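Retro notes - structure team

What went well: the batch runner handled both jobs without manual restarts.
What didn't: labels got mixed up in the shared folder, which is why I'm recording both outputs here explicitly, each with its sequence directly above its C-alpha coordinates.

Job 1
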Amino acid sequence: MTLTLKLFYHRFSKLPSIPDEIVKFFSIKGNSTLLVKGKPGSGKTIFSLECLIKLAKKGCGLYYSTRVDPETVVSQYPYVAEHLPPKNIIDATVTPFS
Protein backbone atom coordinates (compact mmCIF):
# COMPACT_ATOMS: atom_id res chain seq x y z
CA MET A 1 0.00 0.00 0.00
CA THR A 2 1.42 3.37 -0.99
CA LEU A 3 0.65 6.41 1.13
CA THR A 4 0.20 9.75 -0.55
CA LEU A 5 2.18 12.58 1.07
CA LYS A 6 -1.04 14.16 2.34
CA LEU A 7 -2.21 10.89 3.92
CA PHE A 8 1.28 10.24 5.29
CA TYR A 9 1.43 13.67 6.91
CA HIS A 10 -2.11 13.36 8.30
CA ARG A 11 -1.38 9.91 9.71
CA PHE A 12 1.89 10.77 11.43
CA SER A 13 1.74 14.49 12.18
CA LYS A 14 -0.29 13.92 15.34
CA LEU A 15 2.25 11.64 17.00
CA PRO A 16 3.27 13.31 20.27
CA SER A 17 6.77 11.85 20.40
CA ILE A 18 7.93 13.08 16.99
CA PRO A 19 8.09 16.82 16.17
CA ASP A 20 6.17 18.01 13.09
CA GLU A 21 9.41 19.18 11.44
CA ILE A 22 10.79 15.64 11.55
CA VAL A 23 7.57 14.13 10.18
CA LYS A 24 7.62 16.69 7.33
CA PHE A 25 11.31 15.93 6.65
CA PHE A 26 10.63 12.22 6.24
CA SER A 27 7.50 12.82 4.15
CA ILE A 28 9.60 14.32 1.32
CA LYS A 29 9.70 11.90 -1.58
CA GLY A 30 12.99 10.04 -1.94
CA ASN A 31 15.54 8.68 0.47
CA SER A 32 16.25 10.60 3.67
CA THR A 33 19.01 10.59 6.24
CA LEU A 34 18.81 12.33 9.58
CA LEU A 35 21.87 12.73 11.76
CA VAL A 36 20.93 12.97 15.44
CA LYS A 37 23.53 14.69 17.60
CA GLY A 38 23.58 15.43 21.31
CA LYS A 39 25.19 14.84 24.67
CA PRO A 40 25.08 11.43 26.37
CA GLY A 41 21.69 10.79 27.94
CA SER A 42 19.87 13.42 25.87
CA GLY A 43 17.56 10.83 24.25
CA LYS A 44 19.19 10.37 20.84
CA THR A 45 18.76 6.59 20.78
CA ILE A 46 15.14 6.60 21.96
CA PHE A 47 14.27 9.39 19.51
CA SER A 48 15.97 7.61 16.60
CA LEU A 49 14.35 4.27 17.34
CA GLU A 50 10.91 5.88 17.74
CA CYS A 51 11.32 7.58 14.35
CA LEU A 52 12.26 4.25 12.78
CA ILE A 53 9.34 2.43 14.33
CA LYS A 54 6.70 5.07 13.64
CA LEU A 55 7.85 6.51 10.33
CA ALA A 56 9.77 3.84 8.42
CA LYS A 57 8.13 1.01 6.57
CA LYS A 58 8.51 -2.11 8.73
CA GLY A 59 11.90 -3.71 8.10
CA CYS A 60 13.16 -0.92 5.84
CA GLY A 61 14.93 1.51 8.19
CA LEU A 62 18.61 1.47 9.10
CA TYR A 63 20.06 2.25 12.52
CA TYR A 64 23.77 3.09 12.81
CA SER A 65 25.07 2.38 16.29
CA THR A 66 28.26 4.24 17.11
CA ARG A 67 28.73 2.94 20.65
CA VAL A 68 27.36 -0.60 20.99
CA ASP A 69 26.94 -3.70 18.83
CA PRO A 70 23.56 -4.65 17.30
CA GLU A 71 22.91 -7.38 19.88
CA THR A 72 23.18 -4.83 22.68
CA VAL A 73 20.77 -2.47 20.91
CA VAL A 74 18.17 -5.26 20.66
CA SER A 75 18.74 -6.42 24.25
CA GLN A 76 18.32 -2.85 25.59
CA TYR A 77 15.34 -2.07 23.33
CA PRO A 78 13.65 -5.44 22.65
CA TYR A 79 10.62 -3.86 20.94
CA VAL A 80 12.94 -2.83 18.10
CA ALA A 81 13.37 -6.45 16.94
CA GLU A 82 9.81 -6.68 15.61
CA HIS A 83 10.28 -3.58 13.43
CA LEU A 84 13.91 -3.71 12.42
CA PRO A 85 15.78 -6.85 11.32
CA PRO A 86 19.19 -7.35 12.97
CA LYS A 87 20.95 -6.88 9.60
CA ASN A 88 19.55 -3.31 9.53
CA ILE A 89 21.32 -2.38 12.76
CA ILE A 90 24.76 -1.32 11.59
CA ASP A 91 27.70 -1.53 13.98
CA ALA A 92 29.58 1.66 13.12
CA THR A 93 32.28 0.88 15.68
CA VAL A 94 33.71 -1.79 13.37
CA THR A 95 35.32 -1.04 10.03
CA PRO A 96 35.93 -3.50 7.20
CA PHE A 97 39.63 -2.74 7.59
CA SER A 98 40.00 -3.78 11.23
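Job 2
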Amino acid sequence: MKSSSDASVEEEQGFMSHLVELRDRLLKAVLAVGILFLCLFWFADDIYTLLAAPLMVHLPNSSMIAIDVAAPFFIPFKLTLMLCVFLAIPWILYQVWAFVAPGLYMHEKRLVYPMLVSSTLLFYLGVAFAYFVVFPLVFGFFTSVAPEGVEVSTDISRYLDFVITLFFAFGIAFEVPVATVLVVAVGITTPEQLRKIRPYVFVAAFIIGMFLTPPDIISQTLLAVPMWLLYEVGIVAATLYSDRIRDAGIAREKRLDGEEDDVAQTPTAAAPRDATADRTRARPPGGYSNSMTDAPDDPGTEGP
Protein backbone atom coordinates (compact mmCIF):
# COMPACT_ATOMS: atom_id res chain seq x y z
CA MET A 1 0.00 0.00 0.00
CA LYS A 2 1.30 3.48 -0.90
CA SER A 3 2.03 5.90 1.88
CA SER A 4 0.22 9.23 2.15
CA SER A 5 3.40 11.11 1.18
CA ASP A 6 3.75 9.09 -2.04
CA ALA A 7 0.10 9.73 -2.88
CA SER A 8 0.49 13.46 -2.32
CA VAL A 9 3.61 13.55 -4.53
CA GLU A 10 1.80 11.74 -7.34
CA GLU A 11 -1.17 14.07 -7.04
CA GLU A 12 1.11 17.12 -7.22
CA GLN A 13 2.92 15.70 -10.24
CA GLY A 14 -0.39 15.06 -11.99
CA PHE A 15 -1.52 18.61 -11.28
CA MET A 16 1.74 20.05 -12.61
CA SER A 17 1.52 17.95 -15.77
CA HIS A 18 -1.95 19.38 -16.41
CA LEU A 19 -0.64 22.92 -15.94
CA VAL A 20 2.22 22.25 -18.34
CA GLU A 21 -0.16 20.88 -20.95
CA LEU A 22 -2.49 23.87 -20.48
CA ARG A 23 0.45 26.22 -21.00
CA ASP A 24 1.44 24.39 -24.19
CA ARG A 25 -2.11 24.57 -25.53
CA LEU A 26 -2.35 28.29 -24.81
CA LEU A 27 1.01 28.95 -26.45
CA LYS A 28 -0.08 27.08 -29.57
CA ALA A 29 -3.26 29.13 -29.77
CA VAL A 30 -1.38 32.43 -29.31
CA LEU A 31 1.25 31.34 -31.83
CA ALA A 32 -1.43 30.65 -34.44
CA VAL A 33 -2.91 34.13 -33.94
CA GLY A 34 0.58 35.66 -34.15
CA ILE A 35 1.41 33.88 -37.41
CA LEU A 36 -1.86 34.99 -38.98
CA PHE A 37 -1.25 38.55 -37.84
CA LEU A 38 2.24 38.62 -39.39
CA CYS A 39 0.74 37.41 -42.66
CA LEU A 40 -2.24 39.79 -42.74
CA PHE A 41 -0.77 42.93 -41.17
CA TRP A 42 0.59 44.12 -44.51
CA PHE A 43 -2.95 44.07 -45.92
CA ALA A 44 -4.57 45.93 -43.00
CA ASP A 45 -5.77 48.85 -45.14
CA ASP A 46 -7.25 46.54 -47.76
CA ILE A 47 -9.03 44.54 -45.04
CA TYR A 48 -10.61 47.68 -43.62
CA THR A 49 -11.65 48.80 -47.11
CA LEU A 50 -13.34 45.45 -47.62
CA LEU A 51 -15.14 45.76 -44.27
CA ALA A 52 -16.29 49.29 -45.08
CA ALA A 53 -17.54 48.38 -48.58
CA PRO A 54 -21.22 47.88 -47.56
CA LEU A 55 -21.31 51.45 -46.23
CA MET A 56 -19.06 53.09 -48.80
CA VAL A 57 -21.39 52.29 -51.70
CA HIS A 58 -24.15 54.31 -50.01
CA LEU A 59 -22.08 57.38 -49.07
CA PRO A 60 -22.41 60.37 -51.39
CA ASN A 61 -18.64 60.94 -51.75
CA SER A 62 -17.65 57.31 -51.00
CA SER A 63 -15.28 58.32 -48.21
CA MET A 64 -15.02 58.16 -44.43
CA ILE A 65 -13.27 60.34 -41.86
CA ALA A 66 -10.82 59.77 -38.99
CA ILE A 67 -11.35 62.01 -35.96
CA ASP A 68 -8.37 60.80 -33.91
CA VAL A 69 -4.86 61.53 -35.11
CA ALA A 70 -3.63 57.93 -34.80
CA ALA A 71 -6.88 56.32 -35.99
CA PRO A 72 -5.74 55.75 -39.60
CA PHE A 73 -3.03 53.44 -38.26
CA PHE A 74 -4.52 51.87 -35.14
CA ILE A 75 -8.01 51.10 -36.45
CA PRO A 76 -6.84 48.86 -39.35
CA PHE A 77 -4.31 47.37 -36.91
CA LYS A 78 -7.11 46.58 -34.44
CA LEU A 79 -9.31 45.14 -37.17
CA THR A 80 -6.54 42.87 -38.44
CA LEU A 81 -5.90 41.51 -34.95
CA MET A 82 -9.62 40.79 -34.49
CA LEU A 83 -9.72 39.06 -37.86
CA CYS A 84 -6.78 36.86 -36.89
CA VAL A 85 -8.54 35.74 -33.72
CA PHE A 86 -11.71 35.16 -35.74
CA LEU A 87 -9.91 33.01 -38.30
CA ALA A 88 -8.06 31.08 -35.60
CA ILE A 89 -11.21 30.07 -33.71
CA PRO A 90 -11.23 26.49 -35.09
CA TRP A 91 -7.61 26.00 -34.04
CA ILE A 92 -8.23 27.57 -30.62
CA LEU A 93 -11.26 25.36 -30.02
CA TYR A 94 -9.24 22.34 -31.12
CA GLN A 95 -6.64 23.14 -28.45
CA VAL A 96 -9.40 23.41 -25.85
CA TRP A 97 -10.87 20.11 -27.02
CA ALA A 98 -7.46 18.39 -26.97
CA PHE A 99 -6.97 19.52 -23.38
CA VAL A 100 -10.43 18.50 -22.15
CA ALA A 101 -11.11 15.36 -24.22
CA PRO A 102 -8.80 12.97 -22.31
CA GLY A 103 -10.91 13.51 -19.20
CA LEU A 104 -14.20 12.66 -20.92
CA TYR A 105 -15.89 9.31 -21.39
CA MET A 106 -16.68 8.07 -24.85
CA HIS A 107 -20.39 8.84 -24.62
CA GLU A 108 -19.54 12.39 -23.51
CA LYS A 109 -17.20 12.84 -26.45
CA ARG A 110 -19.88 11.68 -28.86
CA LEU A 111 -22.24 14.32 -27.46
CA VAL A 112 -19.85 17.25 -27.08
CA TYR A 113 -17.84 17.01 -30.31
CA PRO A 114 -20.77 17.57 -32.75
CA MET A 115 -21.98 20.57 -30.75
CA LEU A 116 -18.47 22.05 -30.71
CA VAL A 117 -18.16 21.81 -34.50
CA SER A 118 -21.71 23.00 -35.20
CA SER A 119 -21.39 25.99 -32.87
CA THR A 120 -18.27 27.16 -34.74
CA LEU A 121 -19.92 26.81 -38.14
CA LEU A 122 -23.08 28.58 -36.97
CA PHE A 123 -21.08 31.51 -35.58
CA TYR A 124 -19.33 31.92 -38.94
CA LEU A 125 -22.69 31.67 -40.69
CA GLY A 126 -24.12 34.42 -38.48
CA VAL A 127 -21.22 36.75 -39.26
CA ALA A 128 -21.56 36.08 -43.00
CA PHE A 129 -25.31 36.73 -42.82
CA ALA A 130 -24.67 40.08 -41.12
CA TYR A 131 -22.10 41.17 -43.71
CA PHE A 132 -23.85 40.07 -46.90
CA VAL A 133 -27.52 40.54 -45.96
CA VAL A 134 -27.90 42.89 -43.00
CA PHE A 135 -25.24 45.52 -43.72
CA PRO A 136 -26.45 46.51 -47.22
CA LEU A 137 -30.04 46.91 -46.00
CA VAL A 138 -29.19 48.73 -42.76
CA PHE A 139 -26.65 51.14 -44.26
CA GLY A 140 -28.89 51.83 -47.23
CA PHE A 141 -31.71 52.73 -44.84
CA PHE A 142 -29.54 54.95 -42.60
CA THR A 143 -28.08 56.95 -45.46
CA SER A 144 -31.43 57.37 -47.23
CA VAL A 145 -33.20 58.94 -44.25
CA ALA A 146 -30.60 61.67 -43.70
CA PRO A 147 -32.23 65.14 -43.73
CA GLU A 148 -31.66 67.38 -46.73
CA GLY A 149 -28.40 69.27 -46.44
CA VAL A 150 -26.84 66.73 -44.07
CA GLU A 151 -23.81 64.90 -45.45
CA VAL A 152 -23.30 61.43 -44.02
CA SER A 153 -19.65 61.01 -43.06
CA THR A 154 -18.81 58.21 -40.62
CA ASP A 155 -15.74 57.98 -38.41
CA ILE A 156 -13.70 54.83 -39.07
CA SER A 157 -13.40 54.01 -35.35
CA ARG A 158 -17.13 54.27 -34.66
CA TYR A 159 -17.91 52.28 -37.79
CA LEU A 160 -15.63 49.46 -36.62
CA ASP A 161 -17.29 49.36 -33.21
CA PHE A 162 -20.72 49.31 -34.87
CA VAL A 163 -20.00 46.40 -37.22
CA ILE A 164 -18.18 44.37 -34.55
CA THR A 165 -21.25 44.69 -32.33
CA LEU A 166 -23.48 43.43 -35.12
CA PHE A 167 -21.08 40.59 -35.93
CA PHE A 168 -21.18 39.33 -32.35
CA ALA A 169 -24.93 39.82 -32.11
CA PHE A 170 -25.66 37.73 -35.19
CA GLY A 171 -22.94 35.20 -34.43
CA ILE A 172 -24.38 34.55 -30.97
CA ALA A 173 -27.96 34.60 -32.25
CA PHE A 174 -27.14 31.85 -34.73
CA GLU A 175 -26.13 29.61 -31.81
CA VAL A 176 -29.81 29.06 -30.95
CA PRO A 177 -29.91 25.48 -32.33
CA VAL A 178 -26.90 24.50 -30.22
CA ALA A 179 -28.44 26.02 -27.10
CA THR A 180 -31.71 24.23 -27.81
CA VAL A 181 -30.01 20.86 -28.20
CA LEU A 182 -27.93 21.48 -25.09
CA VAL A 183 -30.88 22.16 -22.77
CA VAL A 184 -32.51 18.95 -24.00
CA ALA A 185 -29.29 16.94 -23.71
CA VAL A 186 -28.76 17.86 -20.05
CA GLY A 187 -32.39 17.05 -19.21
CA ILE A 188 -33.61 20.59 -18.45
CA THR A 189 -36.51 20.31 -20.88
CA THR A 190 -37.89 18.17 -23.72
CA PRO A 191 -38.68 18.86 -27.39
CA GLU A 192 -42.39 18.67 -26.57
CA GLN A 193 -42.06 21.45 -24.02
CA LEU A 194 -40.03 23.53 -26.47
CA ARG A 195 -42.84 23.28 -29.02
CA LYS A 196 -45.37 24.55 -26.47
CA ILE A 197 -43.46 27.79 -25.83
CA ARG A 198 -43.13 28.79 -29.51
CA PRO A 199 -45.23 31.99 -29.14
CA TYR A 200 -43.12 33.20 -26.22
CA VAL A 201 -39.89 32.49 -28.09
CA PHE A 202 -41.16 34.52 -31.07
CA VAL A 203 -41.77 37.55 -28.85
CA ALA A 204 -38.48 37.02 -26.99
CA ALA A 205 -36.58 36.99 -30.30
CA PHE A 206 -37.78 40.51 -31.10
CA ILE A 207 -36.98 41.69 -27.57
CA ILE A 208 -33.45 40.29 -27.85
CA GLY A 209 -33.10 41.87 -31.28
CA MET A 210 -34.11 45.21 -29.78
CA PHE A 211 -31.22 45.07 -27.29
CA LEU A 212 -28.53 43.59 -29.55
CA THR A 213 -29.06 45.72 -32.66
CA PRO A 214 -29.19 49.46 -33.40
CA PRO A 215 -32.51 51.22 -32.78
CA ASP A 216 -34.08 50.49 -36.15
CA ILE A 217 -36.77 48.02 -37.12
CA ILE A 218 -34.82 46.60 -40.07
CA SER A 219 -31.85 45.21 -38.17
CA GLN A 220 -34.11 44.13 -35.30
CA THR A 221 -36.31 42.13 -37.66
CA LEU A 222 -33.34 40.69 -39.54
CA LEU A 223 -32.02 39.34 -36.24
CA ALA A 224 -35.32 38.18 -34.72
CA VAL A 225 -36.64 36.23 -37.72
CA PRO A 226 -33.50 34.08 -38.16
CA MET A 227 -33.45 33.44 -34.41
CA TRP A 228 -37.02 32.16 -34.55
CA LEU A 229 -36.33 29.98 -37.61
CA LEU A 230 -33.17 28.62 -36.00
CA TYR A 231 -35.20 27.81 -32.90
CA GLU A 232 -37.43 25.61 -35.07
CA VAL A 233 -34.32 23.96 -36.49
CA GLY A 234 -33.07 23.43 -32.94
CA ILE A 235 -36.31 21.65 -31.99
CA VAL A 236 -35.86 19.20 -34.85
CA ALA A 237 -32.21 18.65 -33.97
CA ALA A 238 -33.08 18.25 -30.28
CA THR A 239 -35.67 15.59 -31.17
CA LEU A 240 -33.06 13.60 -33.08
CA TYR A 241 -30.51 14.18 -30.32
CA SER A 242 -32.92 13.10 -27.58
CA ASP A 243 -33.57 9.84 -29.42
CA ARG A 244 -29.83 9.28 -29.56
CA ILE A 245 -29.47 9.99 -25.85
CA ARG A 246 -32.35 7.67 -24.97
CA ASP A 247 -30.97 4.85 -27.13
CA ALA A 248 -27.55 5.22 -25.54
CA GLY A 249 -29.09 5.10 -22.07
CA ILE A 250 -31.11 1.97 -22.89
CA ALA A 251 -28.05 0.22 -24.32
CA ARG A 252 -26.01 1.11 -21.26
CA GLU A 253 -28.71 -0.19 -18.91
CA LYS A 254 -28.84 -3.49 -20.77
CA ARG A 255 -25.08 -3.79 -20.57
CA LEU A 256 -25.08 -3.06 -16.84
CA ASP A 257 -27.93 -5.52 -16.28
CA GLY A 258 -25.90 -8.18 -18.04
CA GLU A 259 -22.90 -7.41 -15.87
CA GLU A 260 -25.08 -7.61 -12.77
CA ASP A 261 -26.20 -11.09 -13.78
CA ASP A 262 -22.57 -12.15 -14.21
CA VAL A 263 -21.56 -10.98 -10.73
CA ALA A 264 -24.79 -11.99 -8.96
CA GLN A 265 -23.00 -14.98 -7.45
CA THR A 266 -20.45 -12.70 -5.77
CA PRO A 267 -22.24 -10.85 -2.92
CA THR A 268 -19.29 -8.58 -2.14
CA ALA A 269 -19.18 -7.29 -5.68
CA ALA A 270 -22.93 -7.00 -6.13
CA ALA A 271 -23.44 -4.08 -3.73
CA PRO A 272 -21.35 -1.43 -5.53
CA ARG A 273 -22.70 -2.57 -8.90
CA ASP A 274 -26.30 -2.09 -7.65
CA ALA A 275 -25.46 1.41 -6.46
CA THR A 276 -24.02 2.31 -9.82
CA ALA A 277 -27.04 0.88 -11.61
CA ASP A 278 -29.39 2.89 -9.40
CA ARG A 279 -27.57 6.09 -10.25
CA THR A 280 -27.56 5.20 -13.90
CA ARG A 281 -31.30 4.61 -13.93
CA ALA A 282 -32.06 8.06 -12.53
CA ARG A 283 -34.44 9.73 -14.94
CA PRO A 284 -34.18 13.40 -15.94
CA PRO A 285 -37.28 15.59 -16.21
CA GLY A 286 -37.63 14.63 -19.87
CA GLY A 287 -38.45 11.08 -18.89
CA TYR A 288 -35.57 9.33 -20.64
CA SER A 289 -32.06 8.34 -19.65
CA ASN A 290 -29.54 11.13 -20.16
CA SER A 291 -25.98 10.15 -20.99
CA MET A 292 -24.61 13.56 -20.01
CA THR A 293 -26.14 13.74 -16.54
CA ASP A 294 -26.33 10.07 -15.57
CA ALA A 295 -23.52 8.20 -13.90
CA PRO A 296 -20.61 7.64 -16.34
CA ASP A 297 -19.87 4.32 -17.93
CA ASP A 298 -17.43 1.92 -16.43
CA PRO A 299 -13.99 3.56 -16.79
CA GLY A 300 -12.48 0.21 -17.50
CA THR A 301 -14.46 -0.17 -20.73
CA GLU A 302 -15.12 3.45 -21.74
CA GLY A 303 -12.64 5.59 -19.94
CA PRO A 304 -10.82 8.77 -20.93
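One thing worth noting from job 2: The radius of gyration is 26 Å.
We'll revisit the folder naming next retro.
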